[in-house]
Amino acid sequence: MNFHVITLFPESFDSYINESILARAQKEKKISVKFYDPRSFVKATGAQKKNKKPYLRIDDKPYGGGPGMVMQALPIIKAIEKAKSKAGSKTKIIFLSPSGKQFDTDYAKKAVQKYTDIIIVCGRYEGIDARIKKIFKMEDVTVGPFVLTGGELPAMIIIDCLSRQIEGVLGNFNSLEESRISSRDVYTRPESIKYKGKEYKVPKVLVSGHHKKIDEWRAKQGNK
Fold this sequence. Notes:
Order of helices and strands: EHHEEEHEHEHEHEEH
Helix content: 25-40%
CATH topology of the largest domain: Alpha/beta knot
CATH class of the largest domain: Alpha Beta
CATH superfamily of the largest domain: SPOUT methyltransferase, trefoil knot domain
Strand order of the largest sheet: 2-1-6-5-7
Radius of gyration: 23 Å
Largest sheet: 5 strands, parallel
Distance between the termini: 35 Å
Number of strands: 9
Structural class: alpha/beta
Number of helices: 7
Number of domains: 2
């Protein structure tokens, strides 16, 4: 699976995708993550050219008035075109929006089975120029019933969740909690710990070695 992320802040992904399971998945070429900054497709104009590091503007006031700024169409269009040129024929474009379709594990499973490339457009400010959606076929997706500053955090969630569905990423595919009997409570060694004079033990069924009873206990805990 190849992820192509359209974002103004690609560096914000570094500390997450370059650690632990996702880092290993990239190293083993199970996934790849590429970034496309819309500012890379904007040229400095006028007084901006005089600055060593010109501020390349990619937003403007919304037509019709209102607060905030809107991300301009052309820089994002060019970024998506660039991403599409590097993607295969089985590509899906996702725009992260609070009003979009709810993202969940089932969505991730279907996406992994159907596509080889996912282009994720991370909005900022008041959103993106709506004409982009008329030019490209894309789906509005949300990770929850809340509003965030930008699409970067939701993009990380989507990359993480989809990557887990790819065989080999977790090492042992049976590690997928959603495809096995699991409970909300888990325990590890030692079997007994003491804290402020009180002893806390692992439930007896988990150390019994009786796999059927353990599965029944986990199923019961998972339904609470």
